[in-house]
Every structure is written in structure tokens, then in C-alpha cells.
Amino acid sequence: MADQKFNSIQEIGFTGLINRFDAKLSHQRDDVVCGIGDDSSVVSAADNQLFCTTSEIFLEGVHFDLTYTPFHHLGYKIVTAAVSDIYAMNAEPQQVLVDIAVPNKYSVQMMEQLYHGIEAASKDYNVQVTGGDSTASQQILAISVTATGLVDKGRVVYRSGAKKGDVICVTGDLGGALAGLRILLREKKSWKDSGEQHFQPDLEKYEYVVQRQLVPKARFDIVQAFKKADILPSSMIDITQGIVNELQFLGNQSQVGMEIYSPAVPIAYETRNVADEMQEDVDKYAFYGGEDFEMAFTLAEEQVEKLKTEFEDFSVIGKIASKDKKLTINTGEDKSIEIDIFK
Amino acid sequence: MADQKFNSIQEIGFTGLINRFDAKLSHQRDDVVCGIGDDSSVVSAADNQLFCTTSEIFLEGVHFDLTYTPFHHLGYKIVTAAVSDIYAMNAEPQQVLVDIAVPNKYSVQMMEQLYHGIEAASKDYNVQVTGGDSTASQQILAISVTATGLVDKGRVVYRSGAKKGDVICVTGDLGGALAGLRILLREKKSWKDSGEQHFQPDLEKYEYVVQRQLVPKARFDIVQAFKKADILPSSMIDITQGIVNELQFLGNQSQVGMEIYSPAVPIAYETRNVADEMQEDVDKYAFYGGEDFEMAFTLAEEQVEKLKTEFEDFSVIGKIASKDKKLTINTGEDKSIEIDIFK
Questions:
Q1: Of chain B residues 17-36, which have a CB less than 8 A from chain A?
Q2: Which of B269, B317, B26 lies closest to B167, judged by CA?
Q3: Gap from A72 CA to chain B (nearest CA, Å)
Q4: Distance between CA B141 and CA B214 in Å, rounded?
Q5: B56: CB partners within 8 A, 6+ apart
Q6: What are phi and psi of B66, to 5 degrees?
Q7: What's the Rg (C-alpha) of chain A?
Q8: Measured between beta carbons, which residues in chain A are less than 8 angstroms from residue B109?
Q9: Exposed (0-12), middle (13-18) or buried (19+): which is B274, by Cβ within 10 Å?
Q10: Does B41 sit within 8 Å of A130, measured CB to CB?
Q11: In angstroms, what CA-CA distances link B317 with A274, B130, B228, B243?
């Protein structure tokens, strides 16, 4: 049936797998402006507009854990994840389609909670839920979310536009979602170890980071600010796999190297507290922590002040460097770490 | 966390679940022309064009069985399923996005086979693969496919347009995919019973029906024929859950009753042979068998001859009746079966 060789996907990684397919998929259409490789696909619509589409799949046990995730939070979060990719193209999301595959162990009421979260997010992001397939599943809840949006041709922002001299910026603060996950996993372990059926963890002092994990918000405000300030970032990506990974994607697509100055990477006080409590390095949270749903973008240096007149919640963390295709992290202690930007 | 009530989804069914959500989802946008309830969503694009989007999820063990499904056939079939929904709007598909969640037991080579099938289908349907998320899965292969397409405003066809007096038509023949499934399941059982590791079933005499199950084709030809003949069907739906189910959807959305004449329902010789061999009623294959990916549509009676000048592979199987909201199946033996068209 299939080839007799067996190379595990771990050997090449999931990004490697996608790159491999992208190289093999040869069938192209003239109206497709951007295919695999950015936050969403881009197809030309009439009247100088572009249509962006993105889709993601979420599996119980891999992408979410229902032990500590309320269904309505899950519903909100999957919509956030989908529209975040549309915002990352500097586009306005219009619709989401949600497919769910549900095992018997979950009730209609639980699915209603999920939809309450989806509905709440659809209001916050002004998108309409326009499709929904639902089907049976044998063991796990599986959800797929598609979002589409529109952007004027002149205002679309790809991962590929970063230029030497541009500054690298991020919105908000990083690592909070991972800090929240650490707390939730610790509480889950306590609950399992306690052997009790009901367990009410005291999460009050961790509220900020737990919220960052359970109900992250997509940064539509930065997209609005770009419009108001009449600024176009040279490249943009949403931060879902940690800033280091995202900058590698940007650097790779833009064919540039980068330097970041680690003390400039914004980290919340609450995130630092969790790292201290866990006796872990908070920089690792900020650099590699996933699911923050903040935005990373590059900008001509002279536009930083202009953006600041409309929007304050961002930090300049580095600069686009020469074409040596390295991501250099300056720690501020006379040390620097060099990471290859993969092809 | 969730409501304390537990109603199983079986009690209301998956269509019931979607209807329930549709009723609850209140957030709407002006540019969304058609949300949940048709084959795809419809959003206005500029210049009198409409943008259609559809998404589906497929799980191993529920929607496909890798014991007898080669990966490249699976790849082809999921694309067929997605574009079929776009054709069912009388639209032209442009792109597909494929997300896969892969457990360790499957190799890179197997996923390449899957993508070969996706690529083959993308050529046949002239769509570009523009997105692909890939991620880990713990036990089963899960795939989600999104397709988008474009249609002129004046040529979009919904499920809701069927009018009294229209004839009901179907393309091709029905029940073949289920007949193929019956054969494959029988061979799978023989293989398991045999206790052998390798088993080469002799499927030659069942080639037609097995192909119908494993590599169904979406009916883009009928959409092309409508255009050439300058005909607009009053309603249309692709046949994925059996013609009886699909006509219930059409009847419900159009708020009409229907009569079909069962001897007119097209059934292939090879499908009849399988039903005979299995000692089963072939009408059940044709009425309730899923995954044929044929098209059901309604048409003003006088347009039937006009369509025939461009396209021959369709049958008139019945008529739209009064508003009593029944689907009446005349068996041709002085018997008729009445099925309520659910709300």
C-alpha cells in the first residue's frame, strides 16, 4: 500500500513535514496570492481586496485538557486562535466555521457551554459563526476551526517583508500562558494525588497567568492601531509557539537574520513570580512558551513613534540584521546565543 | 463547571445539535449572506461575487478505516468531500486547506502518500492547497479540510429555493459507495478471520463499487453544464448521507413537501449485484447509503430538456409537492412510504 520505508515524523518535525508537502504540491492557481507558509492563505477578491483563510485542528489530550479547561473557555480560545491568524495578515476576520467530533462521554449541555464560549468570542471579534459540522468520535473531542477575513490589497502583511534595519516589536507580554499552564498542571497533580473527587484549587493569586492560558485574547487592537496611525508593518506573525519559533519563521520567510536583546522582552510580574516559584528560568517561558496570542511585527524604525501615538502596549525587542540567517539573542550579560534560522 | 444535566447527543442527534447551536448563535454580520445550514457559508465579496467556505473533520475509526483505505485514496476523498460542498452552491472551488493530526504509528512516507492523493485531487478539481497545519495526535489520525470558492451573485444555488412543481433530479447513480463499503468490510472480516498477516482480497469483480467507496469524484461536470446551458437549478445539495436525508434537508430549507418515485432512482448494475449477494434490499443502499457525492437538485420542469442538450448523466426521480412537509416515496407497487421532513 504505502512505501516500505518508515521514517517517524519526529525525525523531521511537523514543520518539516509541512515544508516537505509544500515543496511537493505543484498545482497552482493564478488567483492564489499566498499559499502554505503564512498565517493564512490569501486569495484575490475583486475590487482590490484579498480574502484570507486559516484553519486549525485541536485535539483533547494534545491541545487542551478538559480536567482544568471549562468548555466555554475552550470555545473562546479556539476562536481566538483562528482569528489571531487573520489579524496576523493585518486583515479583518468575518466568519468562523467550527467542526466538532464528540465522544459519548460528553453531553449536549457540555457542548452548549462550548458554544457559549464560541459565541462570546464571536461577539468580541465581530465574526459570525457560519458553519458547523458535528459528528461522532470514539474517544476524544476533536475540534477544527476555520476563519476567513478580508484586507485591502495594499494593506496585507506577510511574514516575508522584514528588511534589514527594521525594528522587531511584540505586543503585550510573553510567557504568561505557559506560566498559567504550569500552575494548572501543578494543581491537577495535587488533585490527582489527593485522591478526592472534587477539588477546588485556590487560583486567585495566579489569576492573571491562568487567564492568559485559559482565555487568551487575540490582538485586534494592534491591527486597528496600524490603520488609525496609517502605518504598515513590514512583516507580522502571531505568537503561538513562542517568540523564538515565530522569529525563525519570520526570518526564514523574509530571508534575513535578527538580533534580539533579551532584557527588552516584556514579561509580566505575575509570570516572573510563577517562574520563581517553580524555580525555572523566566526567559525560557518568554522565549519558548506557546499560546500567548500576542503579535510580533517588524517596522521601519522611524515609525515607532508614530505608532506610539495610537498604541502603547508594545515593546521594541530587537532589530533585523544582515542576511546571515541567524537569530542572535543578546542576554545583556556579555553573552549571546545564536540560533540557526532553518530553511 | 458545566450544567449538571446530562443529555446524550444521541438523544437529539448531530443535526439536532447543530440546529440547536444555530438557534443560539445570535451574532451576525451584514456581509454574511448565508450562515449555518447550507453546504457552505456564503459571504459577499465585491463586484457581485460571493465567497463560499466549507469545512469538515474526518477521524480514523469513524470516517475512514485504514485497514482497507490506501492513504492516497484517503487524500483524494477528503478533497472530493470538501469541493463537493462548494459545487453544491453552484460555485467554483479555488483552494483547500488541510490540517492533519498524526499519531506516531504513521510514517512520513504514509503522510506523503496522503498528500499525493490530495495533490491528484487538487489537479482534477483545479484547486490549490493553500494551507496545512500538522500536529501530533495520541491515537488516531484526524484530518480537517476547508475549501473555499467563488460564485457570481446571480448564480448561487441554496438548499432553500425548491418550488412546487419543480422536478427533483440526481446525477449518476446511488448506493454504489455503500455497496463498496459492504464488500470492503466483508473482506476485512475474512482477513481477520483468516489470522494471516497479509491478505490480498480479490476485488476485481467489485471494482466499480469499491472505487465508488474509496475514490469518489465530485460532480463539477453538472456545475459546468448548468453554466453552458444557462440553467439555474432552484435548489441543490450534494449526496453524502443518502438521498432521503438530503431531500429532507432540501425540503426543510425550502419549506416544501416532495414525492419521489423509487423505480426512477438510478442504481448501477454492479450495486444491485452486491445487494443480491448480501441478500439485502438495494433500495436501502440507494436511499440511505452515504458518500456517493452525486448531486441532487431541483429544476423547473421545462428546463429538463435544455439541460439534456449539455449533460446526460442525470435522472428525474420525483417532484416538489405541496407544503405538507412530507417526503413521499412511491414504490411503484401501489405502496408509498411517508417520511416527515423534520423542522
A1: 17-18, 20-22, 24-29, 31-32, 34-36
A2: B317
A3: 9
A4: 17
A5: A99, A133, B78, B81, B82, B85, B144, B145
A6: -75, -5
A7: 21
A8: 2-3, 5-7
A9: buried
A10: yes
A11: 68, 39, 23, 11
pLDDT of residue A218: 97
Q: In the prediction, which pLDDT does B33 show?
A: 77
Spatial contact of A223 and A233, defined as CB atoms under 8 Å apart: no
Highest mean predicted confidence (pLDDT) among A10-14, A104-108, B137-141, B297-301: B297-301
DSSP track, B280-330: --HHHHHHH-----EEEEEE-GGGHHHHHTT--SEEEEEEE--TT-EEEEE
Tally the residues of chain B: 343
Q: Which residue has cell 488541510?
A: B98
Facing residue for B27 by CB, picked from A46, A70, A122: A122
CA-CA distance, B223 to B162, in Å (whole number)?
A: 17
The answer to whether residue A12 scores a pLDDT higher than 60 is yes
Q: What CA–CA distance (Å, rounded) separates A186 from A192? A: 10
| Per-residue pLDDT reduced to its tens digit, B111-161 | 889 988 998 999 999 988 888 788 889 989 999 999 999 888 899 999 999
Fold of B167-340: Phosphoribosyl-aminoimidazole Synthetase; Chain A, domain 2 (3.90.650)
Architecture of the structural domain at A9-155: 2-Layer Sandwich (3.30)
- The number of helix segments (H) and strand segments (E) in chain A equals 10, 14
Name the residue ranges covered by the structural domains of chain A: 9-155, 167-340
Q: Decide if A326 contacts A255 (C-beta within 8 A).
A: no
Grid cell locating A113: 457551554
Grid cell in block for residue B113? 502518500
Q: What is the pLDDT, as a whole number, of residue B78?
A: 97
Whether the CB-CB separation of A60 and A66 falls below 8 Å is answered with yes
| B96, B122 contact by CB (below 8 A) | yes
Asked if B132 has any chain A CB less than 8 Å from its own CB, the reply is: yes
Q: Which three cell numbers stand for residue B271?
A: 450495486
Name the phi and psi angles at B30, rounded to 5: -70, -30
Assess contact for A116 and A105: CB atoms under 8 A. no
Q: Is the ipTM of this complex over 0.90?
A: no
Q: Which of B26, B36, B131 sits opposite A41 (nearest CB)?
A: B131
CA distance B138 to B104: 8
> How many residues are listed for chain A in this entry?
343
Residue matched to cell numbers 539573542: A329
Name residues whose C-beta falls within 8 Å of residue A331's C-beta, 6 or more positions apart in sequence: A262, A263, A283, A337
